[in-house]
């Protein structure tokens, strides 16, 4: 019996009739969602019109985004009020819709930041996406730890969108290059390392320099307290973009740049 006979459908005929693959039908059988009405002496599956109705129910519930577990539970309790279940499912889908919209916004923004940025390390890229994902939570936490003007500066809230994206893109490029320079074992006096360090330092100065110069002593002390491990910065909310060795390399680079700047300013005063 290959096709339909006496109201029975072989698995191949049933798959062709319903547009569901044989593999899926076997999977539904293993999961207890749709067992064939009968089997022959060789174990071949055969389906009936009743099975067709049950499959239609499964596919409809799947279309409504019910999980297979929820579909199985519902089919075990056909007397359950579907209207109430649909109301709950609607709320879940609304929540999923909002989440998907946020994911699309995050990916879209990340793609714009990466335009022309060249190759970016996967670990760095995922951390940057993480920061975009949790940006609002980060703002709320930092607002309780530092002056509002500093939070605005860090997240570039007052800048036009295109200018902010360009700064984010430039910082991403510089961070990626510095990570690469470290992996290549370059020295702090390497011209490309210094060039990246100077440019990153200039960007940070452009963003937070004006705000820092206007902070009171109390506000500056509040800022310094953030560097204290006892402050309890959430490492999940604020993951470090760099490994410890990379962070030490950056710290040495900025100290090196600071020493060089002090030395040059001293020479300028002597002249």
UniProtKB/TrEMBL annotation:
Pfam families: MerR_1 (PF13411). Gene3D superfamilies: 1.10.1660.10, 6.10.250.360. SMART domains: HTH_MERR. InterPro entries: DNA-bd_dom_put_sf (IPR009061), MerR-type_HTH_dom (IPR000551), MerR_fam (IPR047057). Residues 8-77 form the HTH merR-type domain. Keywords: DNA-binding. One of its GO terms (molecular function) is DNA binding. CDD domains: HTH_TipAL-Mta. This is MerR family transcriptional regulator.
């Amino acid at each position: 019996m290959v096709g339909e006979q006496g109201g029975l459908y072989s698995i191949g005929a049933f798959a062709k009739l319903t547009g569901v693959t044989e593999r899926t039908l076997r999977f539904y059988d293993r999961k207890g969602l749709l067992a064939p009405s009968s089997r022959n002496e060789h174990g071949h599956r055969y389906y009936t019109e009743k099975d067709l109705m049950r499959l239609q129910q499964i596919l409809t519930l799947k279309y409504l985004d019910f999980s297979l577990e929820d579909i199985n539970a519902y089919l075990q309790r056909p007397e359950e009020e579907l209207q109430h279940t649909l109301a709950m499912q609607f709320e879940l889908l609304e929540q999923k819709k909002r989440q998907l919209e946020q994911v699309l916004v995050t990916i879209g923004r990340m793609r714009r930041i990466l335009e022309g940025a060249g190759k970016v390390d996967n670990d760095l890229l995922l951390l940057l996406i993480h920061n975009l994902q949790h940006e609002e939570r980060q703002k709320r936490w930092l607002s309780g730890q530092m002056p509002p003007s500093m939070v605005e500066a860090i997240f570039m809230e007052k800048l036009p969108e295109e200018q902010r994206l360009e700064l984010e893109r430039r910082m991403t490029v510089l961070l990626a290059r510095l990570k690469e320079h470290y992996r290549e074992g370059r020295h702090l006096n390497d011209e490309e390392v210094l060039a990246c360090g100077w440019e990153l330092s200039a960007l940070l100065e452009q963003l937070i320099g004006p705000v820092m110069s206007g902070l009171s002593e109390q506000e500056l002390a509040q800022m310094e307290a953030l560097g204290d491990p006892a402050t309890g910065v959430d490492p999940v909310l604020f993951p470090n973009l760099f490994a410890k060795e990379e962070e030490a390399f950056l710290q040495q680079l900025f100290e090196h740049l600071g020493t060089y700047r002090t030395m040059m300013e001293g020479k300028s005063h002597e002249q």
